[in-house]
């Protein structure tokens, strides 16, 4: 599976590695499945022979007939990969307090009222406090911790954050480096505290979704320009 130009191993892929431990058998099965998918996508009824030569021809075939959008798909994937790489690097290199302000601006664009943003210095485990109520008199309070570090937040880090949540508080933990698998499972299995974990990928998706609602000053923190590509007809 490809996401933002990056290939990711899916559960089906992991199962295939277990089902076909022999590299040659795995390769031939992959060729067969790829050709079946390609034939279906192009409206064909026959699948080419599952030979290395056949898949080489398919994989290296440049462009495609006018109207297929094959060249456009390749161009879009390359552009998407390059764009995400630049955006990811930009966010990871952003000064920590600028990154914190970016998260606060995003919350405002989502309709929340930001009541407090931590100034430089010790923050007691909280960076932002927000509410759906402009005066902050009604529960729940939304308490946010923001980490711009590249290291993944582990279970102990998430536990420390959960400890500062009271009563009906809702916790949001934003970590540029993402979270370990154990930390993610810990957050999802909280019975008394509602905690949402947001990695860099999810943060960017939210930024794009609510970009039209951002203020001009907020947009300057991470300015984006949409570009349109012709894609294949499916």
Walk me through this protein's architecture.
With 234 residues, the chain is an alpha/beta fold. The chain folds into two domains: 6-91, no CATH class; 96-219, Trna Endonuclease, Chain: A, domain 1. 44% of the residues lie in helices and 13% in strands. The protein contains nine helices and seven strands. The strands form two sheets. It has a five-stranded mixed beta sheet, with helices on both faces. A hairpin with a 2-residue loop joins β1 and β2 (6-7). The longest helix has 23 residues, at 70-92. The chain is globular and about 60 Å long.
Q: How do the helices and strands line up, and which of them pair or pack?
A:
Elements: E1 2-3, E2 6-7, H1 11-19, H2 23-41, H3 52-60, H4 70-92, H5 96-109, E3 113-117, E4 128-131, E5 141-147, H6 155-162, E6 170-175, H7 181-188, E7 194-198, H8 200-209, H9 216-219
Helix pairs in contact: 2-3, 6-7
State the main characteristics.
234 residues, alpha/beta, 2 domains, 5-stranded mixed sheet, 7 strands
Secondary structure tally, helices: 9
How many separate domains make up the residues? 2
Can you tell me the CATH topology of the largest domain? Trna Endonuclease, Chain: A, domain 1
Look at the structure and give the mean pLDDT: 83
Number of strands: 7
- Give the name of the CATH architecture of the largest domain: 3-Layer(aba) Sandwich
What percentage of residues falls in helices of 4 or more residues?
40-55%
How far apart lie the N and C ends?
18 Å
User: What would CATH call the class of the largest domain?
Assistant: Alpha Beta
């Amino acid at each position: 599976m490809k996401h933002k130009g990056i290939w990711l191993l899916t559960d089906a892929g992991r199962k295939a590695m277990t089902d076909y431990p022999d590299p040659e058998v795995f390769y031939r099965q992959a060729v067969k499945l790829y050709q079946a998918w390609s034939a279906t996508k192009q409206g064909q009824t026959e699948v080419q022979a599952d030979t290395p030569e056949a898949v080489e021809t398919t994989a290296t075939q440049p462009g495609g007939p006018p109207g297929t959008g094959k060249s456009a798909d390749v161009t879009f994937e390359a552009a998407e990969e390059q764009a995400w790489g630049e955006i990811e690097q930009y966010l990871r290199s952003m000064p920590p307090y600028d990154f914190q302000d970016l998260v606060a601006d995003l919350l405002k664009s989502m309709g929340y009222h930001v009541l407090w943003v931590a100034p430089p210095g010790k923050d007691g485990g909280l960076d932002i406090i927000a509410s759906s109520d402009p005066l902050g008199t009604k529960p729940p309070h939304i308490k946010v911790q923001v980490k711009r570090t590249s290291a993944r937040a582990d279970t102990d880090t998430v536990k420390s954050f959960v400890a500062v949540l009271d009563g009906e508080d809702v916790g949001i933990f934003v970590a540029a480096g993402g979270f370990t698998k154990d930390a993610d499972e810990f957050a999802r299995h909280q019975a008394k505290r509602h905690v949402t974990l947001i990695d860099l990928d999810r943060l960017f998706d939210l930024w794009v979704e609510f970009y039209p609602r951002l203020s001009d000053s907020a947009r300057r923190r991470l300015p984006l320009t949409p570009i349109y590509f012709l894609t294949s007809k499916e």
